[in-house]
């Protein structure tokens, strides 16, 4: 992308100032730009998981920042193990899927990673596909979480999400990206 | 959702502290939770737009927070006009589409709105569908922007995004949500 380098604004190389370093998040400034950064730099992973009965797994929980119940796909933060970035994503996904839903997966494949809001945050979100699911426990998350699991027939998942939105649940648009990956077979084959 | 109220954590009602109020963003804390909030509370809108030649509109620009070139759908911030929230979204979408791409749309329909990262931000993202497109100018954004427009055949859009990711562009996963809305006909009919 060398020919486009003149399109990089001058303040892209301005020094970074930390406006406030919190326990979990830091607010930073570079030139004109303010953005937030997780203190855990590993990012997050969203898990596209379908049971042997062709049901998509969703989790319901309360999110304090927006003060609403949300419907999400199983997800979690990734630990920061240098040199094992991909392994970090896949292992975190396996752990979080089982913790939140009670389903263990035999394989996890990487699908895509990108920014959740590139104008205001450095957060990077990976999508993975969980394969070979076996039910091993009740799910519900760890002791700090209170998660309800929903198993929704694959061909009804989009309509089900819109119905939950109409009921007042907050639905992250990225869930429809998960459905797009599923419908297009992304991550179906082990790499 | 009354029956699930016991699942709301106690700190959901803790008072909000502002850890830092920046020019554009504020870092806040409620109980254990830290999150970022735009000082412009109207949120953002992403525009799913297809030309009469069945080409999906994407824009390429540099994003300072992540220091990468991104591929996005046309998008922008929404002004804060109380009592005109939906009109605000639709008018902002029309203006941003024309400014960024040079395409004017005859109609805009609302598709979905939800959080971009509900664990760390209050940002709300609306998706709209732009209909009846007519080319009226060069696009490229306002004087502070330097935007390249890409028009990609609809049935190649997913593969094209993965090819750009392989080249090093940063691709927001929400773009695949936009493709899902398009493939499922969301917003095709005026309301």
Fold blueprint:
The structure is a homodimer of 191-residue chains.
Chain A: E1 16-21, E2 25-30, E3 33-38, E4 44-49, E5 55-63, E6 68-72, E7 75-77, H1 85-101, E8 103-115, E9 124-135, E10 148-153, H2 157-166, E11 170-171, H3 174-183
Parallel strand pairs in A: 4-9, 6-11
Antiparallel strand pairs in A: 1-2, 2-3, 4-7, 5-6, 5-10, 8-9
Q: How does this model look, in words?
A:
2 copies of one chain form a homodimer. Chain A has 191 residues and is an alpha+beta fold. The first copy, chain A, folds into 2 domains: 2-38, no CATH class; 44-183, Alpha-Beta Complex (Nucleoside Triphosphate Pyrophosphohydrolase). Chain A is 19% helix and 39% strand. The model of chain A has no long low-confidence stretch (mean pLDDT 91). Chains A and B meet through strand 2, strand 3, strand 5, strand 6 and strand 8 of A and strand 2, strand 3, strand 5, strand 6 and strand 8 of B. Chains A, B: Belongs to the Nudix hydrolase family. NudK subfamily.
């Amino acid at each position: 992308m060398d020919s486009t380098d003149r399109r990089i604004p001058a303040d892209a190389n301005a020094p970074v100032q930390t406006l406030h370093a919190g326990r979990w998040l830091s607010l930073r400034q570079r030139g004109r730009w303010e953005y937030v950064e997780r203190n855990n730099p590993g990012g997050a992973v969203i898990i596209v998981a379908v049971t042997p009965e062709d049901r998509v797994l969703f989790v319901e929980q309360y999110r304090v920042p927006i003060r609403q119940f949300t419907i999400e796909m199983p997800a979690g933060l990734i630990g920061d193990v240098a040199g094992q970035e991909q392994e970090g994503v896949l292992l975190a996904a396996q752990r979080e899927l089982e913790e939140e839903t009670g389903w263990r997966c035999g394989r996890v494949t990487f699908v895509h990673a990108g920014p959740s809001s590139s104008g205001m945050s450095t957060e990077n979100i990976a999508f993975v596909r969980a394969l070979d699911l076996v039910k091993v426990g009740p799910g519900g998350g760890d002791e700090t979480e209170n998660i309800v699991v929903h198993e929704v027939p694959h061909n009804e998942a989009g309509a089900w999400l819109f119905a939950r939105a109409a009921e007042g649940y907050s639905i992250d648009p990225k869930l429809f990206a998960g459905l797009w990956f599923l419908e297009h077979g992304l991550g179906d084959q082990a790499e």
